[in-house]
Amino acid sequence: MLREGEWPRAAATLVVVESPAKAKSIQKMLGPGYEVRASLGHVADLPERELGVDVERDFAPTYEVKKDKKPVVEALKRAAKGKRLLIATDPDREGEAIGWHVARLLGRDPKEPLRVEFHEITPRVVRQAVQNPRPIDQNLVDAQQARRVLDRLVGYNLSPLLSLEFRKRALSAGRVQSVALRLLVEREEEIEAFRPEEYWTLEGVFALGQDRTLPASLYEVEGKRLWAGQGEKEGKLHLANEAQAKALTEEVKGRSYRVVQVETRERRKSPPPPFTTSTLQQAASSRLGYTASRTMRIAQRLYEGVDLPEGTVGLITYMRTDSVRVSPEALQAAREVIQRIFGLEYLPEGPRVYRNRKEGVQDAHEAIRPTDVRRTPDSVRKYLSDEEYRLYDLIWRRFVASQMRDALYDQTVVLLKDEGEKPRFTFRASGSVLKFEGYLKAWGRGDEG
User: Fold this and answer.
1) Which pLDDT score is estimated for 233?
2) What's the pTM value of the predicted model, to 2 decimals?
3) Residues assigned a catalytic role
4) Which of 63, 92, 179, 438 is an S-S bond match for 405, by CB 3.0 to 4.6 Å?
């Protein structure tokens, strides 16, 4: 077994990854003892012009090398002669399936320890991974294969029927797209069936003296809550038209009001967890204006490696994940950065540990986070494009914020009633004042989410 920083004298090992950018990064990290080549994605698939699934024999698939990948496969075969093979495709079911096809086409046994897995592309992690290969996980391969067979069974059989039924060419059906289309149709039907219901609210501005005013909303009339278009309407006062609203306005006006209650209480707002794939896409859309596909392309580049003075290094962990889990080492590093950059008052007593709320979430990968949180956005800005910097900044801030203290607000509610023996009208005003930024110091107050 090689020690870290020690290389074989000749390129005795072939390492196969998906993309040329990833191959370039890993080649620099592993050195001359390894030859790193890219498969350029999937090398084999079901045939293009036939079903390729034997439904009579347990849905057995038939695979063939993709036309545009035949030169790639031949080049890999030549490169693999007389060499040890390691497969370092992405750590998910698609990557596992690519690795299984590569091993099969190169005449290697997938049960041999030839699969290398890592969730961040940094020299230390990559070098450790190549020294600890494992067999290809057949369960992951079967999962990808089942998904692909279902795609083919649905799409291959239904798409021609759609085209025939609607007398249009190039109509398609799919395992996912057809279900998504149905959800869209059902939602559109709900929107079309919705009948808006008119309602009115009353707003008042109360003089407090010394040129101060307090805006407040009518809250109750003779103990009956005013319905404001949300929640249950039963048992509440519904101002259904302008005439009713104006009539009530005349009753409300001209009366004297007094403050009957002022209640202030502290409200805590906890930080959001670190990013998953979907929450990264949502935040990049709302904060940066990036589409989901653009976000994933940029994240792919940040994951696969950036040239820095200390060498090529991936700046973020694997970007396709549903998990919010974070390694203990990364949590400790985040706490050290928070204390150094923001101060001890922003550091909670212990690390925040997040868990997925939904059952069945794949927890093989960590949340999306910087590979080294000490590598601040400003420290790497000149080595990144503008869009890479902005996305890395977003990921870094979200991860750091997830380990900071709650934001604290003073939330105040004021009730005003008309003066008299039997007050009829109650107005309500509420507001909050931020008294301690907490995690917002890093995450900002753009959407506070």
Assistant:
1) 81
2) 0.84
3) 318
4) 438
